[in-house]
Amino acid sequence: MTEACCTLTIPALSHDGANALASALEDSLRIDPMAITINETDEAKGLWEVALYFETEQDAENARALDELKHGFIAPITQQDWVRQSLEGLAPVTAGRFFLHGSHDRDRRRPGGIALEIDAGTAFGTGHHGTTEGCLIALDHILKRRRPESILDVGCGTGVLAIAAAKATGRPAIASDIDPEAVRVTRANASLNGVKPRIASLVAAGLGHPRIAASGPYDLIFANILARPLVALSTGLARALAPGGNLILSGLTLEQMRWIEATYLSRGLALASRITRGNWATLVFTLPQKRKRPGGRTPGRLAFAGSRGAGWEFDR
Questions:
Q1: Which of 91, 201, 203, 299 has the greatest CB tally within 10 Å of its CB?
Q2: Under 8 Å CB-to-CB from 292, ≥6 apart: which residues?
Q3: pLDDT, tens digit (0-9, with 9 covering 90-100), for 212-266
């Protein structure tokens, strides 16, 4: 798994200024950081910073050549298992019928519901993040109405969403990720949670794998990634969805929600729900039963173009 070696930090910004800069950089094609975060540095003065994470110091230097980043400073990152250190002490999370916990909290499992054991590790998705929690709440509400038969999790991370769906439905699921480490972690978590035979874990960029195309269309698709990849994958994801099926999208800030809504509505899908957790949004779409499929294709074996690239609402 590739790790960031350094950060480029732009300090002393207002909250609105930090949000605006982070959003502009996320949409910029001039640089490609591994991640972008905003952090409060002085509560009394209302000061924030924007931090960009880069794989190499040269990438950070190239980014600092931009006018809006020229006042930033570059600092090395001490490599450590920071995910485990930051998350292993967190309390269990309840999301609808799902109860997520680490191995240190097995004795706190509820007698009812569906327990998922996901330890902090080297892939994203323990359930503590608002995007993962939102996806699980969306899944819980879908399961109250129907049981999906075919399931796909694009950008699976730890595999928590595919594992939750497989445990709740008893049906197989495909879990894919561009990162081989995420696929390894997903397989380990599937085994730990007793659903290894039901989870097919694949290394794939977006929808670019023959197994994904051959197994569609899908009754349920998760894509908890980021806004720009969701736009790039919108045509393929819409075509992969079976009539009446649900597409659960997350990895979005509240500011990006309308952008993604408009993109997927233009692909012939209907918005079923919005779920917000803090500054994070989860959107649920459906493909209407009697409407023409996006691109004029009929259900059956799928061919994905561009694979590279109102109901209930909840907030908290």
A1: 201
A2: 268
A3: 999 999 999 999 998 999 999 999 999 999 999 999 999 999 999 999 999 999 9
- Residue 90 reports pLDDT greater than 60: no
Q: What SS3 state is found at 38?
A: strand
Rounded Cα distance, 72 and 173, in Å: 44
Question: Residue 10 contacts by C-beta under 8 Å, 6 or more apart in sequence?
Answer: 21, 49, 50, 51, 68, 69, 71, 72
The secondary structure element, H or E, covering residue 56 is none
Q: What is the pLDDT of residue 124?
A: 53
Please state the rounded mean pLDDT for residues 283-301: 65
SS (H, E, C) 145-201: CCCCCCEEEECCCCCHHHHHHHHHHCCCEEEEECCHHHHHHHHHHHHHCCCHHHEEE
Rounded Cα–Cα distance for residues 93 and 96 (Å): 10
Alpha-carbon distances of 153 from 206, 218, 222, 311, 312, rounded to whole Å: 10, 10, 5, 23, 22
Mean pLDDT of 44-52: 92
Q: H/E element holding 264?
A: helix 257-265
Closest by Cα among 70, 74, 162, 66 to 123: 162
Alpha helices in 31-81 (DSSP H): 57-64
Q: Which string of DSSP letters, residue by residue, matches 206-240?
A: TT--HHHHHH-SEEEEEEES-HHHHHHTHHHHHHH
- State the pTM of this model: 0.66
**Token pair in block for residue 221:** 């698709």
CA atoms within 13 A on the CB side of 2: 11
